[in-house]
Amino acid sequence: MERDIFGRLLAIAINQKVDIGYCLSFPLAPLPPALFHCSGDIMKTDKSTLSKQLTAKIAPANPGQVDIEIIDGFYYLYQIGSNLPQTFGKVAESILIKLCSKNTPEVHIIFDRYLTPSIKDSERQNREGIDIPYTINGPLQKRPNDFLKSLKNFRFKEALVKFLANHWADDSFATVLGNKKNYITVGEQCFSYCSAANLVVQTEELPVELPCSGG
Q1: Cα maximum dimension of the chain
Q2: Percent of the chain beyond pLDDT 90?
Q3: Confidence grade of residue 16 (pLDDT, cut at 50, 70, 90)
Q4: C-alpha dihedral sign at 169, 173, 174, 180
Q5: Dihedral, CA atoms, 79, 81, 82, 88, nearest 10 degrees?
Q6: Residue 124 maps to a domain
Q7: Total domain count for the chain?
Q8: Could you tell me which of 30, 35, 29 has the C-alpha nearest to residue 9?
Q9: pLDDT in tens, 47-88
Q10: HEC letters along the chain
Q11: Which domain, by its residues, includes 190?
Q12: Residue 167 located in a structural domain
């Protein structure tokens, strides 16, 4: 888009006696400038920007009692990813221990997903060289050296979440769970884990359908 397009538009409107309001009813660029760069790339802002703006306006207070803690799974992995053990089995154990150490009886770790069509499609196309197939064959397999970089690979994240959901069902984690109950989302599925008689009880949770109110 030209730098002085509004000035040129005004000059043409005056010289040609064209209604400027009518001129502005047409697009000024191939794509909406508020959403896209001239190159066609989507405008992006750090996710934390909105959060910082909102939290600056409030004085938050911690609740007296917390019954459930909900965690953004991939954001959480970015936070702890630089200090995780070397094998996937130990990674799964370490994450579960951290979740069970939360000061709440129930923890939900939610791993989001993007359905096509999505605003993430263009970004994923730009990362086609990064999103390469990845397989986790078992708990003894070593994780990538640069774990945080691997989290940019959609296929790696998908394989890791599936591995966590499967490996946490191992009865050796019964003592880790104790009296806690954990939930994890895997695609469209959700699994819960609790301990009973020194065994891990894994349950696939059914989706909750909210009743529609009649009009």
Answers
A1: 87
A2: 53
A3: confident
A4: negative
A5: 160
A6: yes
A7: 1
A8: 29
A9: 678 788 888 888 878 888 999 999 999 999 999 999 999 999
A10: CCCCHHHHHHHHHHHCCCCHHHHCCCCCCCCCCCCECCCCCECCCCCHHHHHHHHCCCCCCCCCCCCEEEEEHHHHHHHHHHHCCCEHHHHHHHHHHHHHCCCCCEEEEECCCCCCCCCCHHHHHHCCCCCCCCCCCCCCCECCCCHHHHCCCHHHHHHHHHHHHHHCCCHHHHHHHCCCEEEEEECCEEEEEEEECCEEEEEECCCCCCCCCCC
A11: 68-204
A12: yes
Q: pLDDT of 87-120, one tens digit each?
A: 999 999 999 999 999 999 999 999 988 777 776 6
- CA gap 20, 6 in Å, rounded: 10
Centre a 10 Å sphere on the Cβ of residue 195 and count the other Cβ atoms it contains.
Answer: 19
What are 113-150's pLDDT values in tens digits? 877 777 666 666 666 556 789 999 999 999 999 999 99
pTM for this structure?
0.74
Report the C-alpha gap between 34 and 183 in whole angstroms. Answer: 39
Q: Which long-range contacts (CB under 8 A, 24 or more apart) does 148-156 make?
A: 148/78, 148/81, 148/82, 151/74, 151/77, 151/78, 151/81, 152/127, 154/124, 154/127, 155/131
- Residue 213 within any structural domain of the chain: no
User: Is residue 41 situated within a structural domain?
Assistant: no
